[in-house]
């Protein structure tokens, strides 16, 4: 199976830690953030690695990986960045944000989901926000569900409606990949870069969660994989210090 790692962004909220390296190459416990992801993939027989690069692309090198360049990384966002690797979406794959760490067990649960499109959602999400000052809960991509189906997902979903937080890891079967590609191609043809799309003020600034909401609006079933911890996001310097203490300690 393939993995597509979205790793083009500047990582500016990590301040000087990303002056000379991409965000996913920042050190946690003597290892890069990316190395934790690669280990989790390897333990689940995911060995066809595709990386979307942008900022300091020459510093992001993984043996055997296939690279996809996002030359407009300073002006676009996660959704357009992911689709720089559209050529790799010709079968089952997982997609992941590059600034998160997770255990192999989290990936295992995602891989074995029965859904064609499956979002990994942490039901214990609120625990990670205790004492987290620089990344408030309002910035969490929360998920509202009905049974096994996701109803809405994104920063616009309030805590009162949420079952948990989408961690940035998703799995697609070949059919799910086809649905993802087809809906993206349709909206890409209809929306200009500066037109609103779902919760995004401009299409070029859209998140992956905006496309998930579009799929749901069109009647495509989007499922979820419940987890209870086993992952962490590294978005700010505060996050980095906490994860170094709690995850790699």
From TrEMBL:
Molecular function (GO) terms for this protein are: nucleotidyltransferase activity
Keywords, A to Z, come to: Nucleotidyltransferase, Transferase
Instruction: Enumerate the PANTHER family for this protein.
Output: N-ACETYLMURAMATE ALPHA-1-PHOSPHATE URIDYLYLTRANSFERASE, NUCLEOTIDYL TRANSFERASE
Protein name in the entry: Phosphocholine cytidylyltransferase family protein
Q: What region holds the MobA-like NTP transferase domain?
A: 3-128
Name of one Pfam family that matches:
NTP_transf_3
What InterPro entries does the annotation carry?
A: GlmU-like, MobA-like_NTP_Trfase, Nucleotide-diphossugar_trans
């Amino acid at each position: 199976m393939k993995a597509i790692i979205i790793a083009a962004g500047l990582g500016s909220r990590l301040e000087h830690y990303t002056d000379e390296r991409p965000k996913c190459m920042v050190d946690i416990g003597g290892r890069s953030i990316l190395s934790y992801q690669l280990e989790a993939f390897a333990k689940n027989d995911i060995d066809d690695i595709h990386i979307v690069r942008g900022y300091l692309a020459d510093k992001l090198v993984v043996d055997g990986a296939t690279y996809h360049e996002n030359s407009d990384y300073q002006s676009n966002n996660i959704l357009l960045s992911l689709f720089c690797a559209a050529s790799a979406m010709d079968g089952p794959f997982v997609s992941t944000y590059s600034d998160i760490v997770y255990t192999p067990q989290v990936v295992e649960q995602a891989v074995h989901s029965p859904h064609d499109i499956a979002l990994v959602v942490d039901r214990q999400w609120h625990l990670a926000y205790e004492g987290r000052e620089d990344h408030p809960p309002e910035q969490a991509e929360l998920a509202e569900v009905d049974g096994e189906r996701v109803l809405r997902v994104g920063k616009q979903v309030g805590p009162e409606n949420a079952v948990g937080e989408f961690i940035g890891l998703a799995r697609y079967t070949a059919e799910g990949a086809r649905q993802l590609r087809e809906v993206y191609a349709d909206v890409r043809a209809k929306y200009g870069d500066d037109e609103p799309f779902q919760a995004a003020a401009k299409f070029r600034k859209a998140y992956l969660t905006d496309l998930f909401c579009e799929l749901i609006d069109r009647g495509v079933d989007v499922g979820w994989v419940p987890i209870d911890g086993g992952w962490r996001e590294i978005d700010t310097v505060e996050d980095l210090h906490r994860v170094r203490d709690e995850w790699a300690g």
